[in-house]
Amino acid sequence: MNRGKAGFDRFTTFLLFLVFAGLATWGIGLAVDWDVAHRIGEYADRDFWAGLPDRENYDNILRITSLVLFVLGLVLLAVNIERKRLGRKTSPASGTAGVISIHPADLASAVAQTFEARDDIRSATFRAVQDRSTDVLEIRLRATADADVMGLREACTQASSDIAAALPDQDIRPRFLLQIEQVTQGN
């Protein structure tokens, strides 16, 4: 998620906090008989709210309100579920003879397949995304409980160097997530 989306989410959450905190404080104030809460309640046109369901356009008011809230919910959902996948990258080694391009996901796939060939790795998955304005190749490794963690760390370091060599002058950062299975106790 980029900073703009995160800021929008925080602003929306803060506005909702203010609305619900105000309503909760007002409700508690009415329950404990605070004068301030009663004065705030006097500003509400109770006749309007009490008579609202009896109006002939009440169904239309509900439909329009629900439609507006539904569209607002879809907008908030669309803003938050977008994932920025990485596209093809052109190598700086390209010249007049031709263009060399590579898709970072293909490179991440090759790295994951290399790790899957190891005996102490159960599975290796990958993704190439932009995370907080940073291009990332994420390799998720699921290792057995008896895996050589130091050996895996060295292999991750080597794979990171290989990625940097395959994508020279590209600001793509590898991220290795290691998940170790639990040790099962024998009976």
UniProtKB/TrEMBL annotation:
Superkingdom as given in the UniProt entry: Bacteria
Keywords of this entry: Membrane, Transmembrane, Transmembrane helix
Transmembrane intervals: 12-32, 61-81
Name listed for the protein in its UniProt record: Alkaline shock response membrane anchor protein AmaP
Organism of provenance: Corynebacterium variabile
